[in-house]
Specification:
The protein has 181 residues and is an all-alpha fold. It has eight helices and no strands. The protein has two domains: 81 residues, Rna Polymerase Sigma Factor, Chain: A; 77 residues, Orthogonal Bundle (Arc Repressor Mutant, subunit A). Helix content is 80%, strand content 0%. Helix 1 runs antiparallel to helix 2 and helix 1 packs across helix 3. The chain is elongated. The chain starts with 5 loop residues before the first helix and ends with a helix. The N terminus is likely disordered.
């Protein structure tokens, strides 16, 4: 029997990655996405990224798992971003779906309120906007958001509370300006 050359050794080590880490990675992916099929698809994407990485097999086992977990986290974020792009409708289309019994004046007021809300959200930090998107567009639970953001659930709850309080303050300032005009 001939000894394996360096490339063959790396191939064997890369194939061992799946055997060692597939189960724990799949378990964590299942916690982050609601559909097991999506979790399995993401797991395959994670290992494809691992196979394309030339130095991953040379890392110690703990570092390999950490790297794979980071890739899995990023794949989940990409998954939800892609889903959000598919499900978010332009405001013009939402207006068409709305109840036809709404008066034209009320419809204009609602459009102004939506436009103002979008402007207010743009004033938030990127982290606050991402938090709102994950919670209210993606409808993720706080535990899922905490895992994605690599923060504790309590920290995410405080961030969300502060973000909503900030939006409320902006709204009240806007209302005061509107009433003075």
């Amino acid at each position: 029997m001939q000894p394996l050359d360096t490339d063959e050794t790396l191939d064997v080590e890369k194939s061992m990655l799946y055997e060692r880490f597939a189960e724990p990675l799949l378990a964590s992916l299942c916690q982050l996405v609601s559909d097991r099929q999506d979790a399995e698809d993401l797991l395959l994407e994670v290992f494809l990224a691992g196979l394309q990485n030339t130095w991953l097999a040379r890392l110690p086992s703990g570092r390999q798992l950490a790297w794979l977990r980071r890739v899995a986290r990023n794949k989940v974020i990409d998954h939800y971003r892609h889903r959000a792009l598919l499900t978010i409708q332009p405001l013009g289309q939402v207006q068409e779906i709305e109840d036809q019994s709404v008066t034209p004046q009320r419809r204009v007021e609602e459009q102004e309120e939506r436009a103002w809300l979008l402007q207010a959200i743009e004033q938030l930090s990127p982290a606050q906007r991402e938090l709102l998107r994950l919670r209210y567009v993606q409808e993720l639970r706080l535990t899922q958001i905490a895992t994605l953001m690599e923060k504790s659930e309590g920290t995410v709850r405080k961030m969300l509370s502060r973000t909503l309080r900030h939006l409320r303050m902006l709204y009240e300032q806007h209302e005061r300006r509107e009433n003075h005009e």
